[in-house]
Amino acid sequence: MKYVDEFRDARAAERYAKLLKALVKRPWTVMEVCGGQTHAIVRFGIDRMIPERLSLVHGPGCPVCVTPLELIDRAIAISRRPEVVFCSFGDMLRVPGSGWSLSQARAQGADVRVVYSPLDAVELARQLPQRQVVFFAVGFETTAPMAAMAAHQAKALGLKNFSLLVAHVLVPPAMEAILSSPRNKVQGFLAAGHVCTVAGFEDYGPLAQKYKVPIVVTGFEPLDILQGLAMLVRQLEAGRCEVQNQYARSARAAGNRTAIALVQEVFEPCRRPWRGIGPIESSGLRLTKTYTELDAERRFDVGDIAAVEAKDCLAGEVLQGLRKPHECPAFGTLCTPQNPLGAPMVSSEGACAAYHKYHRQQTRA
Question: Taking the model in full, what pTM does it have?
Fold first, then answer.
């Protein structure tokens, strides 16, 4: 089968494909939560290997994609201040705001720098006491501990010129928002293995029971995804709604307790808008009172900046699993990686970027 040529173990992939064809008796719709899983599914043609009655839809597991438009605009406003050195991971630079992107702001003279760790930004603040260094803290539970460590270290060093523009979001509330929607069609989840490695998956049990959906914590290799799908289908066909862990080589139910404790010291849950989706209760993180002095929104008074989504962009529908990227009229025409309307077309974890990169105009050949 041509879709498995790049697998490290193509024969094992074929075996899982045959197993799934034997297991699937009824139509099912399942969602992979993580954007990394989406890219593996599209790249290796996993959705074309499995039975047609097993439908895969793509979830909101791309933190760049769900960062609200107004936060991008606030980041750009801060970055254009002459005293500011604005630090970010590289995948945020080309994400469009309502007007510019951070990359365009840099081209116009803003001091925007790509860093590989929030601690790099802390070191910059130490080296440049005359400048205000701001780190754009974006990501799910996986990157929140690094941002928390940066805040902890900056406070310990007494740095007055370091702050965080916080855009961290949490996965379980987003899953619940999808399940509670009257438009929901998701019957099971492949949960993000790297998120669960850090945060654990103890919160997923009540979610599975409340909405009667199975959840399988899954890795990112093609064989991980195929095995996770087989575990999920077995539950669906048997009418079970449990949390299982395919990614046992890394994820544990309790997660990384040290990382969790640090995050809880620095951050607290808050209501957060998700780009294209809207506000979700307790789905974001904000700095606790102890660390409020490091809040860039307050320091630079940009909290009132608002923005309106592009009407032609259906990213919100894609992020909720309601549409596939190629079903958006703007896909590949008005919206391309060179001229994106929404973040899923430029993010390395975005579903639209995956479909465009691997020339997917339809889900099956």
Answer: 0.90
